[in-house]
Amino acid sequence: MPILRFALTPGEPAGIGPDLCVMLAQQYWPHQLVVFADPQLMQSRATLLNLPLTLHTWQGPEDSRLCQAGELLIHPVPMATEAKPGHADIRNAQYVLDTLTAATLACQQGQLHALITAPVHKGIINDAGIPFTGHTEFLEQLTGVSKVVMMLATEGLRVALVTTHLPLRAVADAITAPLLEEVIEILLQDLRQKFGITQPRILVAGLNPHAGEGGHLGDEELTLISPVLEGFRQRGEQLEGPLPADTLFNEKYLAQADAVLAMYHDQGLPVLKYKGFGKAVNITLGLPIIRTSVDHGTAFDLAGTGKADAGSLITAIHTAVQMATAQHLSLETHE
Ligand SMILES: NC(=O)C1=CN([C@@H]2O[C@H](COP(=O)(O)OP(=O)(O)OC[C@H]3O[C@@H](n4cnc5c(N)ncnc54)[C@H](O)[C@@H]3O)[C@@H](O)[C@H]2O)C=CC1
Ligand SMILES: NCC(=O)COP(=O)(O)O
């Protein structure tokens, strides 16, 4: 197994992402972590947190150095203006996207094995005049794939989403049979290929309260979701649903399942975060690269204080290690 190399993006420079990267660097990692960021930002955040940090410029794929505790490899990306913890500046919005673009490109070119992202602030990027709904959608566009799927995971629970960052008013119209079919195909494929689950069992939530109550509280379950699920079942896939979302998150059902498919962001993620906040990972399925991320946002209230918890970023790294190792082993067996 070669040394694993990861691209790490600290996200919004006024948030806790840079703090978490400095904290990570305080321990020895048997992998390369290459942070795509402004060196001055990393250095000034380390000073603020009173933590040692020596940066080494990453020399590209030929560079096989591993860092000691207190060191980080860096691919320098310049910020437009100094970042003040807790106070995002629209002038740095393009910088955030530049770090993501450079890190993704390095992964696509095979220079690094996975992309690990710290949180961005979606609002400030939009305030800068750049339409942006999230890493997930940005990476879908950047890598040119037709569809990706957001899945968050913590011990004992995986939750994937049919729709991601949409106003609630737009959700019902966005859920169509072709979209649902595409999302389920990606979920099944990645559970098999990236997680080694040969026969995935998926619980699918309904859209409406009580999964529509037999058509009396909305008919999407009858007209759209059930026929799509039936099509997959006829192919031998194990999909259960549409189930009422308020009762499916129950050990009786979850013990029999590998993942839950929720129809929208706030149907599935509050449960996942209640169960595992700080120990959960966000994984983008359907991408041509491995991408993992944290379960939390920019936490402006904690930036620069040293109080942010690095648990989710560490989980994101461990998950990237597992996924990259599985990918390497699967490539080896197919050679
Ligand atoms: N992967 C990403 O890029 C994500 C970005 N966001 C973005 O973050 C911004 C702020 O979102 P909020 O809803 O305020 O959520 P948030 O996660 O930033 O903060 C919610 C609460 O959790 C606390 N918290 C968050 N991370 C923590 C950590 N590592 N350690 C200790 N406490 C922590 C915060 O202090 C706050 O009290 C939004 O723009 C949102 O879009 C949100 C989720 C994921
Ligand atoms: N709630 C999850 C989230 O907002 C993460 O989004 P993304 O930036 O990873 O697409």
UniProtKB/TrEMBL annotation:
<dbReference type="GO" id="GO:0008615">
    <property type="term" value="P:pyridoxine biosynthetic process"/>
</dbReference>
<dbReference type="GO" id="GO:0051287">
    <property type="term" value="F:NAD binding"/>
</dbReference>
<feature type="binding site">
    <location>
        <position position="291"/>
    </location>
    <ligand>
        <name>substrate</name>
    </ligand>
</feature>
<feature type="binding site">
    <location>
        <position position="135"/>
    </location>
    <ligand>
        <name>substrate</name>
    </ligand>
</feature>
<dbReference type="GO" id="GO:0000287">
    <property type="term" value="F:magnesium ion binding"/>
</dbReference>
<feature type="binding site">
    <location>
        <position position="282"/>
    </location>
    <ligand>
        <name>substrate</name>
    </ligand>
</feature>
<feature type="binding site">
    <location>
        <position position="165"/>
    </location>
    <ligand>
        <name>a divalent metal cation</name>
    </ligand>
</feature>
<dbReference type="GO" id="GO:0050570">
    <property type="term" value="F:4-hydroxythreonine-4-phosphate dehydrogenase activity"/>
</dbReference>
<dbReference type="InterPro" id="IPR037510">
    <property type="entry name" value="PdxA"/>
</dbReference>
<dbReference type="GO" id="GO:0005737">
    <property type="term" value="C:cytoplasm"/>
</dbReference>
<comment type="similarity">
    <text>Belongs to the PdxA family.</text>
</comment>
<feature type="binding site">
    <location>
        <position position="265"/>
    </location>
    <ligand>
        <name>a divalent metal cation</name>
    </ligand>
</feature>
<comment type="function">
    <text>Catalyzes the NAD(P)-dependent oxidation of 4-(phosphooxy)-L-threonine (HTP) into 2-amino-3-oxo-4-(phosphooxy)butyric acid which spontaneously decarboxylates to form 3-amino-2-oxopropyl phosphate (AHAP).</text>
</comment>
<dbReference type="Pfam" id="PF04166">
    <property type="entry name" value="PdxA"/>
</dbReference>
<feature type="binding site">
    <location>
        <position position="273"/>
    </location>
    <ligand>
        <name>substrate</name>
    </ligand>
</feature>
<keyword id="KW-0170">Cobalt</keyword>
<keyword id="KW-0560">Oxidoreductase</keyword>
<feature type="binding site">
    <location>
        <position position="210"/>
    </location>
    <ligand>
        <name>a divalent metal cation</name>
    </ligand>
</feature>
<keyword id="KW-0521">NADP</keyword>
<keyword id="KW-0862">Zinc</keyword>
<dbReference type="GO" id="GO:0050897">
    <property type="term" value="F:cobalt ion binding"/>
</dbReference>
<keyword id="KW-0963">Cytoplasm</keyword>
<comment type="subunit">
    <text>Homodimer.</text>
</comment>
<keyword id="KW-0479">Metal-binding</keyword>
<feature type="binding site">
    <location>
        <position position="136"/>
    </location>
    <ligand>
        <name>substrate</name>
    </ligand>
</feature>
<keyword id="KW-0664">Pyridoxine biosynthesis</keyword>
<dbReference type="GO" id="GO:0042823">
    <property type="term" value="P:pyridoxal phosphate biosynthetic process"/>
</dbReference>
<keyword id="KW-0520">NAD</keyword>
<dbReference type="GO" id="GO:0008270">
    <property type="term" value="F:zinc ion binding"/>
</dbReference>
<keyword id="KW-0460">Magnesium</keyword>
<protein>
    <recommendedName>
        <fullName>4-hydroxythreonine-4-phosphate dehydrogenase</fullName>
        <ecNumber>1.1.1.262</ecNumber>
    </recommendedName>
</protein>
<comment type="pathway">
    <text>Cofactor biosynthesis; pyridoxine 5'-phosphate biosynthesis; pyridoxine 5'-phosphate from D-erythrose 4-phosphate: step 4/5.</text>
</comment>
<dbReference type="InterPro" id="IPR005255">
    <property type="entry name" value="PdxA_fam"/>
</dbReference>
